[in-house]
Amino acid sequence: MNDPEIYVKWKPLLMCLVAIAIVSLIILSIVIPVKMATKRGRSGFGWFIFCLFFSPFLAIIIIALLGETEEKRRERIIEEEKLRNKYRDPAPSHSQNNLKKWFEENPGKTLNDYYNKR
After folding, report:
1. Region of residue 91 (left: phi > 0; alpha: psi -120 to 50; beta: else)
2. Is 118 helix (H, G, I), strand (E, B) or coil?
3. Which region among 14-18, 34-38, 81-85 has the lowest average model confidence (pLDDT)?
4. Which of 30, 46, 84, 93, CA to CA, is 20 to 30 A from 38?
């Protein structure tokens, strides 16, 4: 009995895999500047169009040189100040009632014990 042999054409398969790899790299190289732009408060769609017509690598360099917008910088500074204030004052401002309640429940304890209870 002669079993039919199966021949696989490797050339088209390899060309398909290479094409998929190239398209994936192009998409990845466009996603990076778009994410950089939105993180810095700039238009992601605008930079996507720029990457299509020019180079994603050129876009990365330009976005890095431009930096943040003033609005984004202001938002970032406000968020950082909120974090600083949060860690500067370990007890939240509404915890005065909790503090009094804790002292009533734990006679003989000090304020340091209250902050170290965590």
Report:
1. beta
2. coil
3. 81-85
4. 84
How far is it, in rounded angstroms, from Cα 23 to Cα 18? 9
pLDDT digits (tens, 9 = 90+) for 30-65: 999 999 999 999 999 999 999 999 999 999 999 999
Please give the helix or strand (H or E) that residue 80 lies within, else none: helix 70-88
d(CA 32, CA 53): 16
Longest dimension (CA), the chain: 97
What's the CA gap between 22 and 17, in Å, rounded? Answer: 9
**How many Å apart are CA 33 and CA 15, to the nearest integer?**
28
The span from the CA of 51 to the CA of 45, in Å, is 10
Which of 95, 5, 39 is closest to 47 using CA atoms?
39
